[in-house]
Design brief:
alpha+beta, single chain, 3 helices, 34% strand, three-stranded antiparallel β-sheet, six-stranded antiparallel β-sheet, 33% helix
């Protein structure tokens, strides 16, 4: 008589149970990641959209070189009144190497020109404070001193380059699902940060930004909550 060995189904049932539990957990974790992945995609799309649009705009402004309708005042030392747009460009930075389309930030840099250099004369006691203010405003300068007939130091003299260096940085915050927009020296010598939802970085918002840069409208400041101001007022 031949005895047939019955298949042992206990082992396969155990594997089936493990498969079901594993697949259920994978599906659950994938569902949990989906909103985060959608948020990251929305942020990256907004950053790329801003870069491409602003990159072209900077090229056109560099050719046109319009007069900017802002007055930049640094205490009582100097005033840039309606400087001229000189040069500008947009750039971006990735998160490391070979990381696809993930961006660390997008930034727009530009320069504004006054018609002539500035000469600032102050008492020697005020020289340190003036130098700190000039550096904080990203103004380039060199300094010397003036003596009177008795060789006594009368003034500290700052020769200030007539150039404003301004920038707009789009910095993603992936944890809060927002984009922080830092404006530096855009309409005055200070830094301002606004907080945007990714969907709010659209073409009308970018148009408002350029109008703000040119001093034609401040509508851009009303598009998002104010997150930070670093005032350099005296």
């Amino acid at each position: 008589m031949v005895f047939c060995r019955m298949p042992d189904t206990s082992h396969s049932s155990f594997l089936d149970e493990l498969r079901q539990r594993s697949e259920a957990l994978r599906a659950e974790r994938a569902a949990a990641r989906l909103p985060e992945e959608k948020a990251r995609h929305a942020i990256d799309s907004a950053l790329w959209r801003a870069f491409r649009w602003l990159d072209e705009v900077m090229g056109h402004l560099e050719v046109i070189r319009p007069e900017v309708q802002h007055r930049f005042r640094l205490a009582d030392y100097l005033t840039f009144d309606r400087p001229q747009f000189d040069t500008g460009f947009a750039t971006f930075r990735r998160h490391g190497l070979a990381t696809g389309d993930k961006l660390e930030h997008v930034e727009m840099f530009y320069r504004l020109l006054a018609s002539k250099p500035f000469v600032v004369r102050v008492s020697p006691l005020a020289a340190t404070a003036v130098e700190e203010r000039l550096r904080a405003a990203a103004l380039h300068f060199h300094s010397d001193i003036e003596h009177d007939a008795e060789k006594v130091v009368r003034y500290s003299v700052f020769h200030v380059e007539p150039v404003i260096r301004a920038s707009v940085r789009f910095k993603p915050d992936y944890q809060r699902h927002v984009i922080d927009v830092m404006l530096r020296n855009v309409d005055r010598f200070e830094s301002v940060m606004l907080e945007f939802e990714p969907s709010a970085i659209d073409e009308p918002a970018l148009e408002d930004l350029v109008h703000f840069v040119l001093g034609e409208s401040n509508a851009f400041l009303h598009r998002a909550p104010l997150a930070y101001v670093n005032s350099r007022r005296a």
